[in-house]
């Protein structure tokens, strides 16, 4: 082989050593490239993860932002709802304080509620307020109680007779039914509101006022009381399915326990009206049995109204009310408003008939104005009715010997004015609400000073003035001390003839246990006695 050719061939085919170095360089280059690719892939993966995290965080922020917007919208809707139910014009603290001082109102338990001084400030529907059209503004007990009751708080209301207590609890009850149930409140398989009253007349009167306030909303009421056919009442219950039941304790228990005509398991609003009278009449056991059938705790709102605040009523309130707000008008003791001109005449029993006729010539001169004459016993009321009819007076009497239909007809005739002179026993002392009774004549003094106060409360109602003329006989001297205190508390003149009987106030006797009853204050803690 020629040298030139060999040289070219040797150049074309490198040596083994050179080939090894080139391979090493190639491998290093590849390794660097792979490392770079791995690093770029790692960076890319990390960027993807970071991007996902960022997008996730952004999504979480977006969700949180949306949730916040929903929450804010709900809050705004709630605020709008509250603003809608809140009265347009608010009462200032200064106005509230002046109002409480003027009407001697004390509020304990929670004094953060401001009174409603005008009907326009209440949350009640205009359809409900139609029942108050004849009144210019709420009464003090209504002004103070309405904001508390509509806030779903338990309430104890203490106020004088004739102060407007029925509307104080009736309107908030109907408002609750309308707001919470709407049209469903027009027909209820189980009652949602229960009002317990001590007498038939008071129960019927409360029932009528509830009907009047709820009629434009289609909310019905049913009254259960003794002296009327029970089967008729049960039939009406099943037919009308009322949201409100007004009842006397005995008939209510009879219908629920014996006939099982209704269930009280859905009652959300309970009213104990004239609680002191119910306890005085011995209904405490019945009341406790009735409340035991109702929903307990926060599922039920309880409102208690009373003219007095004795230990027995306090004990009942402590047992069945949850953290109540106590609204008291004036003193806790029973009082007569100063619009009633009280005249007490000490008289011999033989002169009473003649003196009654003399008073009627003066008080009932027109024979058209309403006059109410109170007797003590059923036979006495019947005798007076016959005597006055013989003297030419257009009168009627109500007492326990008359049927419930006769009693209702008599009250309706008196209320309408077709029979303007009514003779009654104490069955009408609390249950009669006729705004235009000008005169009350107590022909015979009642057995208790509380009944005297309630009798006098039948006049001077709805802001008007009236006269209560009372015959006081020597046989009534045990009441002289209490009567003198009542007259003085109302700034009335105490006749010298009454002072002669003394000013001693005897201990109030229990209706069932008499003078042997021990009035124990349940708020007083027992004293622990340790014997050494």
Automatic annotation (TrEMBL):
Entry-linked InterPro entries: DEAD/DEAH_box_helicase_dom (IPR011545), DEAD/DEAH_RhlB (IPR044742), Helicase_ATP-bd (IPR014001), Helicase_C-like (IPR001650), P-loop_NTPase (IPR027417), RNA-helicase_DEAD-box_CS (IPR000629), RNA_helicase_DEAD_Q_motif (IPR014014)
Transmembrane segments annotated in the record for this chain: none
The protein, known as: RNA helicase
Motif Q motif per UniProt: ranges: 117-143
Localisation: Nucleus, Nucleolus
Keyword list, A-Z: ATP-binding, Helicase, Hydrolase, Nucleotide-binding, Nucleus, Ribosome biogenesis, rRNA processing
Ranges where the DEAD-box RNA helicase Q domain occurs: 117-143
Residue ranges occupied by any Helicase C-terminal domain in the UniProt entry: 339-502
Record organism: Coemansia reversa (strain ATCC 12441 / NRRL 1564)
Biased composition (Basic and acidic residues): 42-75
Record's compositionally biased regions (Basic residues): 25-41
Region Disordered, annotated ranges: 1-89
Family indicated by similarity: Belongs to the DEAD box helicase family. DDX5/DBP2 subfamily.
Domain named Helicase ATP-binding: residues: 146-327
A Pfam family assignment: DEAD
Main localization (coarse): nucleus
